Amino acid sequence: MEPYRIKVVEPIPFTTRQQREEALRRVNYNLFDLRAEEVTIDLLTDSGTGALSAAQQAAGMAGDESYSGSRSFYRFHEVVTELTGYRHILPAHQGRAAERVLFSTLLEPGKLALSNTHFDTTRANVELAGAEARDLPCPEAKDIDSPSPFKGNIDIDELRRILTGPEGHRVAMVVTTITNNGGGGQPVSMENIKQTSALCRAHGVPFFLDAARFAENAWLVTRNEWGYQDRTPRQVAEEAFRLADGCVMSAKKDGIVHIGGFIGLNDGELAQRCELLLIATEGFATYGGLAGRDLDMMAQGLTEVTEPSYLAERAEIASYLAHRVHAAGVDILEPPGMHALYLNAGRLLPHIPPHNYPGHALAVQLYLVGGIRSAELGSLYLGEEDEAGNPTKSAPYELVRLALPRRVYTRSHYDHVGETLAVIAKHAGSVQGFRITEQSPILRHFRATLEPV
Ligand code: F0G
């Protein structure tokens, strides 16, 4: 059961099917353009959407808003130092700000960044620094039906091959994303982190964690990795951070705050250069674009997030929803992770070709039938067409992500998601695909307009 009870509530909106049809037409079938008050269950993201605890709110009230050297900073600094062990900690307003500051300091044109999978903003910040971002997912990741427990791993053989090969001198950093959000929210094993760490040290390449979901990764390690069953998630997380040379962190996930992030580094010289950029573009080094109260709430959230009872319930509710989804006759990327489920829309809607966006069609149905908002991760997100609209590239899988905000929705909300999917699955054959009517040159899924075909 949930290891907490509800003290503050917020009403959720209910709409009629006719209102949802009108809303969809108004936003040209782009779900990002819906007003949140038109959405009943919002599973667009688990980022910044969690519920604060009473202790976090109390910590926020005690926040010290001094411009420099605030008490809040020192509390935050102490908590993050104990958790990660890094010698230098710089606050940032969210994950992508931490990425921008670190990557633009470390990378330059011609350099190569390697990762199990770069998250969108991580890739964008590598590319903005003029470097190349290359993903090296492990071979098991390609089979989305395999229940293999650590499909988030980096491909160690490929990493070794690149580091020892002719491109080795170009590699400026390796980033392991835990859990691997771009790779279906799958965890990374400690063995894989250890091997990556050893390879990077042997080749003098800095190794960082993109630690947005470090606690969820640690929980799955305690469940599934040999030798870690008797460890606490906190112990696993501490060990993981210490295997890397630093981290970038979006605290909007496993910091359970609405805004916040940080950079952790061991290299003093690198930290000094990052600090100067941080001061110029984010804020002074003791607040990094955040208010004192944000730092206090983040410190408290980072302490709560590794509590076994919290993590056990989070894993439990994800598998509860996975069960409901399976019962509705819909497949997911296996095994279910913790922060999200990825529905296999391509398999549910085989009559819709990739360039008519089966994932988007399913996301639209989830809203139309159940007022549920989700995110397409298929050919609308990853595909490309030529000028005439003929497809030139489609996504490897047509997926829809149901992200689970922390401590927000209960089992009856997720029952509604399961029931909605069962209704959709029953008339799957009649679900229509879409055509893009207008799109932007980059990140088109955010701004594209569409119409049914
Ligand atoms: N790294 C990972 C693995 C992420 O999932 C995200 C954000 C970021 C970095 C960037 O952090 O949003 O604080 O700037 N992921 C969100 C999502 C947006 O919905 O998955 P941010």
UniProtKB/TrEMBL annotation:
Cofactor dependency: pyridoxal 5'-phosphate
Residues with N6-(pyridoxal phosphate)lysine modification: K253
One GO MF term attached to the UniProt entry: carbon-carbon lyase activity
InterPro entries per the UniProt record, alphabetical: ArAA_b-elim_lyase/Thr_aldolase, Beta-eliminating_lyase, PyrdxlP-dep_Trfase, PyrdxlP-dep_Trfase_major, PyrdxlP-dep_Trfase_small
Keyword annotations of the record: Lyase, Pyridoxal phosphate
Top-level taxon in the UniProt lineage: Bacteria
Domain named Aromatic amino acid beta-eliminating lyase/threonine aldolase: residues: 42-418
GO biological process, one term: aromatic amino acid metabolic process
A Pfam entry, by short name: Beta_elim_lyase
Family in the record: Belongs to the beta-eliminating lyase family.
NCBIfam families linked: PRK13238.1
The protein, known as: Tryptophanase
Annotated organism of origin: Actinacidiphila guanduensis
